[in-house]
Specification:
Layout: H1 2-6, H2 20-32, H3 37-48, H4 54-63, E1 84-95, E2 98-109, E3 115-120, H5 125-139, E4 145-148, E5 155-157, E6 164-165, H6 167-176, E7 179-182, H7 192-205, H8 214-227, H9 242-249, E8 265-270, E9 276-279, E10 282-285, E11 294-299, E12 303-308, E13 311-317, E14 326-327, H10 345-350, H11 355-367, H12 373-385, H13 388-401, H14 406-421, H15 426-431
Parallel strand pairs: 1-4, 4-7, 10-14
Antiparallel strand pairs: 1-2, 2-3, 5-6, 8-11, 9-10, 11-12, 12-13
Length: about 425
């Protein structure tokens, strides 16, 4: 009644969208705002001075059919043990006081909505196989179908119904009793039951929690699944918890094989000059006698085994969530010990004959390279070649002048030899 009493010309009353000019302005603002009604409301005020309440503006948009009408949503129904759904999502996580991006990998039973998730620093086919094995063990069985998106980690080519699953992933899934089925591109609702828990994990599990490493993070994630997520009653389940619904679904799940498939990567590496092999940017030690040789590496989820000709030569804990880190086992790279060598044979042969010779040999050894081996050997040769008297006299003279050139020392020895053994007196020559 108030709207009718005010009338269309009352100041402050927003015009109706039935006139062509208003419809044209509305369509132009909606187009420029790229379908955002809030921004379209601002453009109408800025450009035309047309102030329209938000609720009225949304009604105008519907009346003008500027936005397509919502389509009826479908609903999927799953029987016990008929299907499970798998997906991944990146989350910001506090590990050891640092915020990092970790990949949350989750699997859910479509009927009971029982949830299992773990975190990995990255997601490759190795991590996918490890997660699938852990998830099926947690569920104590598997459904025959696992619905996924078209991720290239699992899908080798194609999409949707034409998706080709990577052979190693398909073979691994077959040993656990299920096959993968990718939904069509643009239809994520097909696995909507695994999509919703990611928001729940981000808002309930992660806030206020600190983790020491990925092992601690996954231990807490497992406890949260067991004590919180799977014990919370859900309205869609008739106000019963997923754990209670799981008791109904459990008899319909396929049993796991008695011997579970191992998860490992087989790698070939060459030991570098520092005695390490590199795996995922981290380096693991090998006994130094294998430097430069090829080895076989088995990468398991929790450890690294290194073999040489089928014999294990090293076993390391696998470094997860770390980069460019070395892990060295005791005994692989012992610290070199300098062996104290005794005196040289030449030094022993020169010692003890005369104090001047001992001092000269010690000084010569300090000044000569390579422990003075060549110099001492030459000095010993001079001692054996020339008479003792001239040799020691030359040694004392060389010590007095700091002369350690053995060529000049030999010249001094020859001068003393000439004076002792030959008569070089000129007067004696004239008398003769």
């Amino acid at each position: 009644m108030r709207r009718l009493l005010r009338g269309p010309d009352t100041p402050g009353h927003s015009p109706t969208p039935h006139d062509a000019q208003t419809r044209e302005r509305l369509a132009d603002a909606f187009r420029r705002a790229r379908g955002n009604v809030v921004r379209a409301q601002q453009l109408l005020i800025e450009d035309n001075g047309l102030s329209v309440p938000y609720s009225t503006l949304t009604r105008w948009v519907r009346d003008a059919e500027l936005r397509p009408a919502p389509r009826r949503a479908g609903e999927y129904h799953f029987g016990p043990g008929s299907e499970m759904q798998h997906d991944t999502s990146p989350h910001r996580v506090q590990i050891d006081g640092k915020a990092i991006t970790a990949h949350c990998t989750a699997l859910l039973l479509a009927y009971s909505r029982r949830l299992f998730f773990q975190y990995y620093p990255r997601v490759t086919r190795f991590e996918v196989k490890h997660f699938l094995l852990e998830a099926c063990c947690y569920m104590d069985g598997s459904a025959p179908i696992c619905v996924i998106d078209n991720t290239s980690v699992i899908v080798a080519g194609g999409s949707g119904a034409n998706a080709v699953i990577a052979p190693e992933i398909a073979a691994f899934a077959a040993t656990l009793g299920f096959v993968f089925r990718a939904h069509e591109v643009g239809h994520p609702d097909r696995k909507g039951r695994i999509e919703r828990p990611f928001s729940y994990i981000e808002r309930n599990f992660l806030p206020g929690r600190q983790f020491n490493d990925f092992d601690d993070l996954n231990r807490q994630a497992l406890g949260w699944c067991r004590d919180v997520a799977n014990r919370k009653p859900k309205a869609v389940l008739g106000n019963i918890a997923p754990e209670a619904a799981y008791l109904i679904e459990k008899p319909h799940l396929q049993q796991l094989p008695r011997v579970l498939p191992p998860v490992y990567d087989l790698l070939e590496r060459t030991v570098d000059l520092y005695g390490y092999v590199s795996i995922d940017t981290n380096r693991y030690s090998v006994p130094e006698k294998f430097v430069g040789k090829s080895v076989t590496v088995y990468k398991y989820p929790a450890e690294i085994r290194i073999l040489r000709r089928e014999a294990e030569i090293a076993k390391h804990p696998r470094l997860v969530g770390q980069r460019d880190v070395r892990h060295t086992l005791p005994g692989h790279h012992p610290t070199p010990v300098r062996v104290s060598r005794g005196p040289l044979l030449e030094e022993q042969l020169l010692k003890g004959h005369h104090p001047s010779l001992d001092r000269y040999a010690a000084a010569l050894k300090q000044r000569a390279p390579n422990r003075g081996l060549r110099a001492l050997r030459r000095l010993l040769e001079l001692k054996r070649t020339y008479p003792s008297g001239p040799f020691l006299a030359a040694i004392e003279e060389a010590m007095r002048f700091g002369l350690f050139d053995l060529g000049r020392l030999e010249t001094l020895i020859l001068k003393h030899v000439a004076g002792d053994f030959f008569n070089l007196d000129p007067e004696a020559d004239d008398d003769a």
